[in-house]
Structures are given as structure tokens and as C-alpha cells.
Design a protein that fits this description.
Length: 352
């Protein structure tokens, strides 16, 4: 079985990652790529590393959607929901990399404003396969998770499932500049970014906070095999991101203070058991680092018990453009369509 795929927002970093993985996928054909900025121009103009490999020109979204079996949206939140409505009206299934279908209507409104197409929300399934694998097959809208949220959720899900989050979980991430997209911004200008570390959207203002709390609340109430229609337990996360001068990568450091005492060996055993059988999650004793997953679609995790403070420290490293974006979107599509879960995906990082 081969499906025809259209990529919207294909001149952004997430779009490029989708094209790369879909080219390597045994069951997909890139039918069309859409971009307003590069409309009518060849793919090579936006992506020199794909020169001669993708003989397509950028088209508008209507042309891209027509004739596609699945539409993958690497487009901004708010602007994406109408594209999803158009794709569903055309009979296509959708994988959405924006925030538009990750949350219920009330949670979305609290963080983003009124939802543009709330009638579609019941059809959306949260696209983190490690936690929603049984819910994804046959999904018509796969809501691919946010990059920061992915790292935080994977780091904390085993603790949430065992009731070990304590009162408030503190999550600090460091993230590379590509997570901000390809647009121009003074803070991403090389002299501003290089040799600098800058916190942003701290103290409960980052929009991924709502997503992290929602999904971990499901896991706390339902365990690993969570469903959007199931119960959730209230969870509070103190989430604070830091931008650092690297191209790609996220390292999440999560600290919780559960009641009772555990130890590092016991925590590692919990994590290995929780993620047993998940091909794209690796639990190790060594502390994770971003370079180990750069260019890959895996997450690398570890966990420690801090006996002095009675805290568990969980760490997760991902590539924000891989497991945090394009790789995870393809993984979710694979499960939705019944393809091998890792088809088209990358296991190895790039070293050095």
C-alpha cells in the first residue's frame, strides 16, 4: 500500500524534515508540497540539500490538498485548523504538527483563544504513540505533540503513572534555535544568540504548559495506555525553557518530590519497564545529551534519585525537529495507517 502525501508549510524546518522522512518511507509518495513564500519555485530553492532529489515545485494549499490521501500540516497554530477542515472536506486524513488539535476546546481557549473549528476536535487523537498507541489506529486527525511538551511528558510519564509527581513538577528545558522556526527574529540573529543563554516564556506563560499538564493528567489517571476520552487527574507543572546557541536539540530536566523514598536503581527499572517495547525511546544509566539524538527520531532518557533532597530527577534528550516534530508526525501517521511504526524514521544520531 502506498499513500499520496501533501506537505503544507514545506519551506519550514518541520516541512523539510517531513519531506526527508517521507522520501525514505516504503509506503508514501510525496505528491505535493505547499509554501506561500516559495510559491511556484522548485524545492531546491528552499532546501539546497534536496537538490535533484525532489522534482516538485511549491504549490498553494488548495492544489496540494487535492488528490492527497493524507495532508501533513507544518503550519502555524490558528492558521492550521481551516486547512485541516479543507483537507477533511476533501476526504484526506490529516497529521497536524501545530497546536490546533492537541487540546480540548476549553484548554485550547485558555492558552490560544477560541478554537477556529471545534467541531473537528472529537476526531483528533494526540499523536504521542508511546502513550496513545491503541487510540491512534484509524485516526482521521493525528495531533502531533509539541517539541518541548514531548521531552517533558516522556521524562515524567513513568512517574505520573505511579503517582510519584508530588505536588508541583519542575521542568527546565534547554532548546536549540530551530525550535523557533525559520522566520526572522532579532533574538535569533547570530550576534544576539551566539555565546548566550536566554530564558523565555517562564513562570507559567509558555503555551506548552497546558499540553504537558493535560497529557500527564491522563497518564496519572489512566496509566500508560491513555485515551483522550478517559479521566484525568489534575497535574501542575512549573515549566521554564531556556534558549541556547545550538541549531537543534532539547534537553529536559524534570524534578519532582514524591512522598516516600525510592532509589536510582528502582527508578531506572520503572522507566525501563514503562517504555519496554517502545522502539524510539531508550532508557539508559548515563545522563542524556542532545548530540546523541541530533538528526534522529529517538528519545533518550535517564533518571536519578537525589537522597539529600528527597527528589527524583528525570532527564530526556530529543531532537526538536525529529522526535519533537517531523519524526514524531511520521511515527503517528504510521500507527494511524497500520504501517510499521518506525518506517521512514531514523535511529542513529549524528556524531560528532
Amino acid at each position: 500500500m502506498t499513500i499520496a502525501v501533501a506537505v503544507l508549510g514545506a519551506s519550514g524546518y518541520g516541512g523539510a524534515g517531513l519531506i526527508e522522512r517521507l522520501r525514505a518511507h516504503p509506503h508514501t509518495r510525496v505528491r505535493a508540497v505547499a509554501s506561500r513564500q516559495f510559491l511556484g519555485r522548485p524545492v531546491d530553492d528552499a532546501w539546497p540539500h534536496l537538490a535533484g532529489l525532489v522534482p516538485l515545485r511549491f504549490v498553494d494549499t488548495d492544489d496540494a490538498i487535492a488528490g492527497a490521501d493524507v495532508v501533513m500540516c507544518a503550519t502555524p497554530h490558528g492558521a492550521t485548523a481551516p486547512l485541516v477542515r479543507a483537507a477533511r472536506d476533501a476526504g484526506a486524513r490529516v497529521v497536524d504538527l501545530s497546536a490546533d488539535f492537541r487540546l480540548d476546546a476549553d484548554t485550547y481557549a485558555a492558552w490560544y483563544g477560541p478554537h477556529p473549528h471545534p467541531e473537528l476536535l472529537p476526531d483528533a487523537v494526540y499523536g504521542l504513540p508511546e502513550l496513545h498507541r491503541s487510540e491512534l489506529p484509524g485516526a482521521t486527525i493525528v495531533a502531533s505533540p509539541g517539541c518541548n511538551a514531548t521531552a517533558a511528558i516522556l521524562a515524567l510519564a513513568p512517574l505520573a503513572a505511579d503517582g510519584l509527581l508530588g505536588g508541583v513538577a519542575n521542568v527546565t528545558i534547554v532548546t536549540g534555535a530551530s525550535g523557533a522556526g525559520r522566520g526572522l527574529d532579532l533574538g535569533l540573529h547570530h550576534p544576539e544568540l551566539n555565546e548566550n543563554a536566554r530564558a523565555y516564556k517562564v513562570a507559567g506563560t509558555h503555551r506548552h504548559t497546558g499540553e504537558i499538564e493535560l497529557i500527564l493528567g491522563r497518564v496519572a489517571a489512566q496509566g500508560k495506555d491513555a485515551r483522550g476520552s478517559g479521566p484525568r487527574t489534575p497535574v501542575r507543572i512549573a515549566f521554564n525553557p531556556v534558549l541556547v546557541p545550538m541549531n537543534r536539540g532539547i534537553l529536559a530536566v524534570a524534578v519532582v518530590r514524591p512522598s516516600g523514598t525510592v532509589d536510582t536503581a528502582g527508578l531506572l527499572a520503572r522507566y525501563r519497564d514503562f517504555y519496554a517495547g517502545d522502539a524510539l525511546v531508550h532508557v539508559q544509566e548515563a545522563l542524556p545529551q542532545t548530540k546523541a539524538v541530533a538528526g534522529s527520531d529517538r528519545a533518550v532518557l535517564s533518571v536519578r534519585w537525589d537522597e539529600r533532597t528527597g527528589s527524583a530527577v528525570a532527564l530526556c534528550a530529543i531532537d526538536n525537529l525529529g522526535k519533537g516534530a517531523a519524526g514524531q508526525a511520521v511515527q503517528g501517521m504510521n500507527v494511524a495507517f497500520g504501517f510499521p511504526e518506525t518506517a521512514g524514521l531514523r535511529f542513529e544520531g549524528v556524531w560528532p
